[in-house]
Write a structure and sequence with these properties.
This protein is an all-alpha fold and about 270 residues long. The chain has one domain. The protein is about 70% helix and about 0% strand. The longest helix is centred in the middle third of the chain and has 31 residues.
Length: about 270
Amino acid sequence: MFEARSSRNPLINALHILELIYHGTVRNLRMSHGNAIIGLLRNLVQSLIFVMVFYIMFIWLNLRSAAVRGDFLLYVMSGVFLFMTHTKALGAIVGAEGSSSPMMQHSPMNTAISITSAALASLYLQVLSMLVILGGYYAIFTPFVIMDPVRAFGMFLVAWFSGCAVGMVFMAAKPWAPGFIGIASSLYQRANMIASGKMFLANTLPPSRLVMFSWNPLFHSIDQGRGYIFLNYDPINSSLMYPIYLSIALIMIGLMGEFYTRKHVSQSWGAKR
């Protein structure tokens, strides 16, 4: 009576999984606030605050001359938006329901659906916030031109994908050491305030400084994104494929870790708690 019915038709199974992902995404969007509009406004205000804080910081530290020629506020937003989507994606994946969650007791639900729903909910909020802010800036303040908007948005997606990949590794290890992983993920997000490179251009860094940032996939995503946004900037000290290859590797490591955790959760959790 309470057994979940499954179909042998692959198409029906795929549609059923997509339906579960959709409902999981909606559930994740409503977790921060019951009203979806208020939840979006909260994320929008947070993005605006970040943009204004970094704009004031650039002016106060006299870093405006280090920016690429073009719209200065667009330069600031190009770094903040990718930083925000990377950080939010990481936090969403780390906070997604894992193998030990009570939701996993329901047979249609699994960790793959939970992770995908959390990632898509984060992407939806960030894309919507970015479009509203850019649209408002274009309509109210000054029209601007993005040289290659499709590829620039592609780097936005790469920043989101790399955030999901790093979050997968943290999520896989979280059940074994929740306190340590919570601190480590927070340190990574705080370090990206500087290590992401959103405050400077990679082309202006000497080799001795470049090695301090070249490990970070977000650094490459932001620098490559600015190359597609601004006509007067050609990124030569960052790589387009590095964040993609690294993210795929981290996703594989995270999936293997999550699979191992899922197989051992019933054996070890009772003894550890």
